[in-house]
Amino acid sequence: MQHFAAHASSALALLVLAIALRAGSGTTTSFQFDERIRHSLTTDVVDPNFCDPSSRSLSGYFGVDGSQYDSDRSKKYFYWFFERRTSALSNVTTTTSSIAEADDIPLIVWLNGGPGCSSMIGLLTELGPCLINDDGMSTRVNPHSWTEVGHVLFLDQPAKAGYSRGNGDDDTVDMTAEDAYYFFQSFFQSSEGKKYANNPLVIAGESYAGHYIPALAKRVADGNDGLADGDSSALIHLNLQRLAIGNGYYDSEVQFKSYAPTARRFKESYGIEILTKTEYKKMKKGARRCIKSVKQCNDDLENQLACQIGTRCEQETFFGVFAEKDISVYDMTQPCTEWNGCKDNPALKKFLNLETTKSALNVPSNVTWQECNDIINIGWSDRDRAFSTGPYLASLLDTGLPVLMYAGDYDYICNYLGNKAVALSMEWEKKDEFGDATDHDWGDGRGLARTAGNLSFLQVYKAGHMVPMNQPVSALMMIDQFLAGEAF
After folding, report:
1. Among 76, 224, 401, 437, which residue carries the largest CB count within 10 Å?
2. Which residues form the signal peptide (predicted)?
């Protein structure tokens, strides 16, 4: 079983040092929450004309020197923050004219998955205020950006994902959650970020964020509980209010059972045959073998051989037939392309490695952006992939934290049947109530919803792995409804 690191020592005082990087430009603020680790936050204002003139934005790096594992580790996490659009201000229930001063506007932190993929994917192809153009040289304003309904911060994590870098070799969500927790502490205590410290904090993401988000939210909850017990005056309470996870990867043992039925049912639902009867039976049989290996791994996370066998079994049993037939595991209606997550997107790679882009975002010129880091992906497969985050999510649900699990039904790799099975299997106080609830229409034919207590599950029609990309109107309606606390 994985464990969270101990809270920062209550004996340590907060050390803050602001250093001007350039006249009239950004600052670096240093923090010492723990005697073993030094944190820093660099913040620069981004030219509003670079992405969306109606949204003020900041970018920078969160630095971590040392860790609870190794004093020589050094990591820098890139982030890009956008305030809610000024054009959306008329919908804000506040008496102030300043968006930055309105503490009722939700602040959404978005995490892409992988593990090892950049959150700039979500920003520039899904829900950010601007979207990448095909030429890889420019962007266009996204009318369905989630900045219509809140502030949005995109964080590249783990270290060495996207623009982030470092010499650490973190390979579990608990390790990454520790750094992300202190990123929140640093951001909300910085000169630019402290104005948002009282805003409702919403953590959202997709895919492997089904691992990231429950672990991070658990770390935040544990940190808040520690403050209530008087752990450290250097830390502040984080106003965590909601979680939203799309097409998440939570629990291999549960989700492996869904692959064959998802592919087979696709013919019944949409008339597209993915698997023959013979292939279906073979996959069902293979699933039992994969689940056995994953269970051995999950029972003993130090059993790397079992973990590796489980990962290899997953690739061969569930995904091989898709590669042979050139069908995208992210959208079963499409062949593999650069625009459905099946291959690296050359436009993204080109744009984010332009010197003009890096200069605008205050990224060092010697940093190379990559869409997904295969080394991270492979390394995490040895331990973390098999680990179920369902218990983390269940414990958070029991505190009353609202959780939205949503899934596009064209997706295969983190399909809606598997996501729904996870939602139904979690052991929490309203498990039976959720199981007895009925699916009902959502959004006048945009999907099917089920709700019990503070858990909602939403199947989004005609969307693949990346719901905001495929169904941007539905995605914006969904997050707006969730943030408003309206029932699904």
Report:
1. 76
2. 1-26
Q: For the chain, which domains are there? A: 17-251+385-483 (3.40.50.1820), 254-340 (1.10.287)
Structure tokens at 352: 């984010």
Please give the angle made by the CA atoms of 378, 288 and 413, to the nearest 5 degrees.
Answer: 45
d(CA 441, CA 449): 6
CB neighbour list of residue 278: distance below 8 Å, 6 or more residues apart? none
Residue 455 near residue 423 (C-beta atoms within 8 A): yes
Euclidean distance between the first and the last CA atom of the chain, given in angstroms as a whole number:
34
For residue 73, the model assigns a pLDDT of 76
E strands in 215-374: 240-246
Distance, CA of 63 to CA of 77 (rounded, Å): 6
Bridge pairing between strands 440-442 and 201-206 = unpaired
Query: What local confidence, expressed as pLDDT, does residue 340 receive?
Result: 61
Query: What was the pLDDT predicted at 5?
Result: 33
Structure tokens at 274: 């993915």
Q: What is the pLDDT of residue 28?
A: 86
Give 117's contacts (C-beta < 8 A, 6+ positions apart): 161, 162, 207, 208, 371, 372, 373
* Token duo for residue 111: 């995490």
Give pLDDT < 50 ranges for the chain: 1-24, 89-97
Judge contact between 352 and 123, C-beta under 8 A. Answer: no
- Taking the C-alpha atoms of residue 290 and residue 309, their distance in angstroms, rounded to an integer, is 8
Per-residue model confidence as pLDDT tens digits over 198-218: 999 999 999 999 999 999 999
What's residue 231's pLDDT? 66
Task: Give the distance, in angstroms, between the CA of residue 382 and the centroid of all CA atoms in the same chain.
Answer: 21
Residue 120: name the closest of 106, 105, 136 by CA.
136
- For position 25, what pLDDT does the model report? 53
Give the residue among 160, 180, 68, 161 at the shortest CA–CA distance from 121.
Answer: 161
CB neighbour class for 278 (10 Å; exposed up to 12, middle 13-18, buried from 19): exposed
Rounded CA separation 71/182 (Å): 16
Please, are residues 392 and 219 in contact by the beta-carbon 8 Å criterion?
A: no
